[in-house]
Amino acid sequence: MDNKKNIAIVYGGDSGEFDISVQSGQVVSKFLDKKRYNLFPVEIKGAEWHFIDEDGRRLRIDKNDFSLELSGGKVEIDGVFIAIHGTPGEDGKLQGYFDMLGIPYTSCDHATSALTFNKYFCKNFVSTLDVANANAVLLTKNSPLSRNEILKKLTLPVFVKPNNGGSSVGMSRVNLAEELESALEKAFAEDDEILVEEFVKGREITCGVLKNKDELIVFPITEIISKKEFFDYEAKYKPGLSEEIVPADIPDVKAEKCKKTSAYLYEQLNCKGVVRFDYIFNDDELNFLEVNTVPGMTEASIVPKMAEAYGISLEELFSIITEEMFR
Questions:
Q1: Assign residue 292 a region: left if phi > 0, alpha if psi is -120 to 50, beta otherwise?
Q2: Distances (CA, A) of 50 to 14, 93, 202, 324
Q3: Which domain holds residue 10?
Q4: Fewest Cβ atoms nearer than 10 Å: which of 63, 77, 245, 314?
């Protein structure tokens, strides 16, 4: 009898990160240990949830209990590896669904996911922990602010970005007042809420944190150098437009502060699985940018590169993440 756990790898989602999520799901499916687990890739897009078998056939998932029917009978899922970047996999929606079904999953819980996905709420919470971050205002479609009102509160240049989203989709850097309106339109096309945030001069770094049993693993700091004006969607995913240096060539005192801050935030935010924290650092301080609770898992993504530099292979990384959800 097969004693292996049935693991669903969910990917896709309903955001501009769909294609990247599909790639993450494919990499997890490729490297997660098939000797230990039975793997069931599941693509989610809107109301369409399908298991996709090795021949590319699509079988509908029963959402009543997240099961599927195969020729050998009903397959019940023991745990879910969430590889959806953006909604509904990174904002708490899927987490709440799996909580109601009693099925464990690899990411942060529904409350942490919802908080960290909302950039403005997350910034405010992190501020209460005495971690510096840039001045910002929140705009909604129901209560927008005029250009003059925004510029009274913030100093140019600013970044305009969807408040709930990732991969820099819909994000713009605004250097001149007359550029603000088009940037707002671009962001509002992606989300009903917008974060307008002051530019902080410095170098962008990121730190991954992973729980393994009782040990908190803090990966080497990575510096992100974009060849564009900022690390936008194209720079993230088009070869040659950015460089990720692991480990970052930064002073030891800065690296240590970043690691300690990331470990502290991981615990204070009640994180699970692997999480990536992004910052800007300069001579004055370390400035928190955002949390990625379902970071990219392609072979070119930052967290796998961090893990490799730490000495953890993709197979080991995915096994640790999977086993952690059952603890």
A1: beta
A2: 14, 18, 44, 25
A3: 5-106
A4: 63
Tokens of residue 282, six digits: 């300069």
Q: In whole angstroms, what is the distance from residue 221 CA to residue 263 CA?
A: 12
Tally of structural domains, the chain: 3
pLDDT digits (tens, 9 = 90+) for 2-33: 789 999 999 999 988 899 999 999 999 999 99
Query: Contact, 59 vs 34, CB < 8 A?
Result: no
pLDDT digits (tens, 9 = 90+) for 112-130: 999 999 999 999 999 999 9
Q: What pLDDT score does 284 carry?
A: 78
Q: 256: which DSSP letter?
A: H
According to DSSP, the residues that pair with 265 across neighbouring strands are: none
What span, in angstroms and rounded, lies between the C-alpha atoms of 151 and 145? Answer: 10
- Tell me the sheet residues that pair with 216: 211
Q: What is the CATH number of the domain that holds 177?
A: 3.30.1490.20
Q: Are 14 and 45 in contact (CB under 8 A)?
A: yes
